[in-house]
Structure formats: structure tokens, C-alpha cells
Amino acid sequence: MHNTFLIAVDSGKSTTKGIMREGAIQKIKFQTKIEEVSNLGAELTPGSFHVDFEGKCYLVGNMLDESKMDYNLSKRTDTHRICIYLAIAQLLKRSKQNIVLSKITLAINISISLYKNEKQKSEFSEFLRNNGETINIIVNNKSFLFRIEHIHLLPEGIGPIYCDLNLYRKKRVVIFDIGLLNVNIQEFNNLIPAFNKMITADLGVNILRSKVADKLSTQFGMTVTDADVEAIYRDKYLIINGKKMEESKQIVDQLLANHVKEIFNFALSRKVSFSNTEIIFVCGGSLLLKEYLIKEFPTAAFPEDAQMSNALSFLTILEAKHRGQS
Fold first, then answer.
1. Using CA atoms, how far apart are residues 161 and 142, in angstroms rounded to an integer?
2. Are 52 and 138 in contact (CB under 8 A)?
3. Is residue 227 classed as helix, strand or coil in its secondary structure?
4. Burial of residue 256 (number of CB atoms within 10 Å: 0-12, 13-18, 19+)
5. Hey, is 260 helix, strand or coil?
6. Ordered DSSP codes for 64-103
7. 4-157+309-325 belongs to which CATH class?
């Protein structure tokens, strides 16, 4: 049995998503949070992993709080490298093939600014490939040994554009990828990306979360944390000592609506046109802001699996390249 795998990974600041095709599509997803640990005695919960890599031990995933997210704009970090390797390992675990010393062809997301810089792309590629050396990672006491033989670096925020070629083949499409730190905006004409319409705004949902926390802290004379804001997004109100603060909903609604207007205004300021254009929103931030995005642009589209749409397109590109080389 062969042991060559085509794997696509979309490693965001909030969530890492991975996908491969083995019969059916195999998908994995976990939070991009990591902390070095020693003598971990706690029982792992679903979506959390104990990882051994290069002589160090890490806890990765859902058990960690928001402070363990990597807010560094660069993705050339141990956090992203370990999460990408973890995603590969979790997909290999689902395979019925021989996974001993697996050979990986990887498609991975990079920022738009990095995508435009050939030197930085090359350095990042070698960083992830471990300079071609074998990668050994132990996940929950199970060892995985693989080598990344080929890597394709693809821009963030391409959304579902290559998952359904016939749907977008004769259209102009603008995709908004709303992430934790940034919003990536890309325009495609007949499936071809417009290089000068690949832009990034510092308007991710973490910026919004800070606005909400600051405003509510001032309004109600108490400390509202980022974790509190996540609960407020879910419950729609700030609740203090069991009492629902009725005016908090209007404050939050206004802040979210204004943030959406900022995103659209930024795009317009960079000469992105919405005329005769299909608008698509992807990534987790688009789900949070969906109600407000639709109010601003009622005909906007949201892929069925908005968080996985980038990875699905990456896999489609990967499979097409592989067929072309066969």
C-alpha cells in the first residue's frame, strides 16, 4: 500500500482546519492555541491534544483560554508549525493506508502580503518543510513520522472559488475572509485573481472584541473581559449578577454594525467595486457578523461550510496539480 497523501491545511489565528480525500472527504478542526507544559496530568477533552515535538511537550486546542492564541501577524512561528503538523497527523490517523514514514504534498494558507514576496515565501516553505528532513511528532502518545515532499503556498481568503469552477467561471467575485486579526479581500475575474485587488485590513474580530469590551466596561463601570464578550455574542446581552442589562444589546448591535461598515468602507477606499459582482463571505468571523453583513449587502453569499471553504479550494488546487504531474 502506498503512503503518499495530498493534504490541505488552513491554519488561522483562531482555528486550524485540515482536509484530505480518502474515499470521502476527511476533515479536522481545532483551536489554534498552544502552551508548553510538563507532567500534564489532566484528562484531555475533545479537541485538545498532548503533543511532543523536538524534545518539548505542548497542550494544544480547546482546553486553553484565549490568552494562548498567537497574535503575532507572522505565521512563521512554532504555534502555526506545530498546529499544521498536528493537523497532518490527525488526518493520517484516519487513513487506512500505511502511514509509516508518510510522504506529504501539502497546500497551506499564507497571508496576502507573504504571497506577494517570493523570498519570504521560499523561507516560509523551507521552515514548514523542516528543510526536507523527516518530521517526528507524537500526538496523545502516538508517533507520526512524515516528510513534506512538496508544498504549495496559497493566499488566504480564496473561499469556495475553486470548489465549484462552473459556478464562478464567468463571474466577477469579491471574497471577504474575516479572521481573528485581519480581513483578507480578494477579487476574481473568471476564476483569475486580480493581483492589485488582493488586500488586507486590520479589522478582524479580535479588534471588534476589544471595542465591545472597552465600551461595555465604560458603560457599566466594571471589567468586561474578552471571554465575557464571547458569552455576550452568544447571549446577546451583558448579564451582571444574573440580571440582564437590557441596554447592552443595543450597544453591541451598534458596535457590530459599525464594524461591518468599516470593512466595506475599507474595501471601497481600495477601489474594490461591488457593481456586477458576487460578494462572498468566509471564515469564522463572517458567521459572527452574518446578520449585519446581510443588512449591509443583502445579496451576499455564505458558503455552507464557511470555515472549511478555503481548505476545500486548496485541496481542489492540490488535486488538479497532482493530476497534471501524473
1. 36
2. yes
3. helix
4. buried
5. helix
6. S-GGGB---S-S-SHHHHHHHHHHHHHHHHT-SS--TTEE
7. alpha beta
List CB contacts of 226: < 8 A, sequence separation 6 or more: 66, 209, 210, 213
Residue type at position 31: Q
CATH 3.30.420.40 segments of the chain: 4-157+309-325, 160-302
For residues 82 and 130, the answer to whether their CB atoms sit within 8 Å is no
The x, y and z cell numbers of residue 179, run together, are 479572521
Amino acid at 131: N
**Structure-block grid coordinates of residue 269:** 477606499
Rounded Cα–Cα distance for residues 215 and 239 (Å): 15
Smallest CA-to-CA distance from 303 within 295, 311, 34 is with 311
Nearest Cα neighbor of 249 from 266, 233, 225 is 233
Of 152, 148, 38, 20, residue with least CA distance to 92: 20
Q: Return the bridge partners of 172, or none.
A: 189
Find where cell 518539548 sits: 56
Class of domain 160-302: alpha beta
Print pLDDT tens along the chain (326 aa): 468 999 999 998 889 999 999 889 999 999 999 999 988 877 898 999 999 999 999 999 989 887 777 766 677 889 999 999 999 999 999 998 888 889 999 999 988 888 888 898 899 999 999 988 999 999 999 999 999 999 999 998 899 999 888 899 999 999 999 988 899 999 999 999 988 889 999 999 988 999 999 999 999 999 998 778 988 988 889 999 999 999 999 999 999 999 999 999 999 999 998 989 999 999 889 999 999 999 999 999 998 888 899 999 999 999 998 876 65
